[in-house]
Amino acid sequence: MKKRNVFLIIFLIVIADQVLKIYVKTHYHPGESHPVLGHWFRLYFIENEGMAYGWKLGGGLGKITLTLFRLAAVIFGVFYLNRIIKRNYHRGYIICVALVFAGALGNLIDSMFYGLIFDNNSFDTSAVATLFPKKGYAGFLHGNVVDMLYLPLVHVDQLPRWIPFFGGKPFSFFNYIFNIADASVSVGVIIILFFRKRFFHLEDKTLSENQAISISE
């Protein structure tokens, strides 16, 4: 697979992720929600200090640790992608790694720069953010990740009372709010897990054939 095609995939995902994040950040106040496709797909603006799907790594130290981990993962990803492209790994595997890399890079941009280029965060629910203000809401590496994709695919106002533990309570399936970068990482990882035998069996076969050719020469 050509390197330029891989980096085109990464570029398009990162651009789509950042354009949507900046739009939501500058047009929605935190907690604002609008339907896109009925009740099961909404844009719901929140921010989080932690990992994908709102998971957190507590405190300021946890925040900067997570950002530095993302940075290290992205740097490693550049070298790893270059390696698997040169070694002609399975096309599907290369695309999946590119998806994971693009997602990590998308959220890294938020963590590194959003505190500098926006003037309010999730603690100010009174107004939308301003892009490139005189002063940002946080320092370098301390920005919050912007999430907005909300897909409550199943929503029940009240479950039957006979259901243990949850009976009589409202129920929603998939309450996580995420972004394009999170989705890119998740899709890449899930496809690798499902098709790992196909990806790596073909890779082992290719390497064996190359070794055989080298010996015969």
Comma- or semicolon-separated keywords:
globular; alpha+beta; two-stranded antiparallel sheet
Distance N to C terminus: 26 Å
What is the strand arrangement across the widest sheet? 1-2-3-6
Which segments are poorly predicted (pLDDT under 50) over 5 or more consecutive residues?
A: 211-217
What is the count of β-strands?
Answer: 6
Largest sheet: 4 strands, antiparallel
How many discrete structural domains?
Answer: 1
Beta-strand portion reads 5-15%
Radius of gyration: 21 Å
Fraction of residues in helix: 40-55%
Mean pLDDT: 85
Number of helices: 4
Quaternary organisation:
single chain
* Spatial shape: globular
SSE run: HEEHHEEEEH
Q: What structural category characterises the helix and strand content? A: alpha+beta
Structure description:
The protein has helices at 3-27, 59-86, 91-117, 180-216; strands at residues 33-35, 42-48, 145-150, 154-156, 171-173, 177-178. The chain has 217 residues and is an alpha+beta fold. The chain has one domain (3-216). It is globular and about 55 Å long. Mean pLDDT is 85; it is low at 211-217.
Produce the secondary structure layout.
Elements: H1 3-27, E1 33-35, E2 42-48, H2 59-86, H3 91-117, E3 145-150, E4 154-156, E5 171-173, E6 177-178, H4 180-216
Antiparallel strand pairs: 1-2, 2-3, 3-6, 4-5
Helix pairs in contact: 1-3, 2-3, 3-4
In a nutshell, what does this entry contain?
By secondary structure, this protein is α+β, with helices and mostly antiparallel strands.
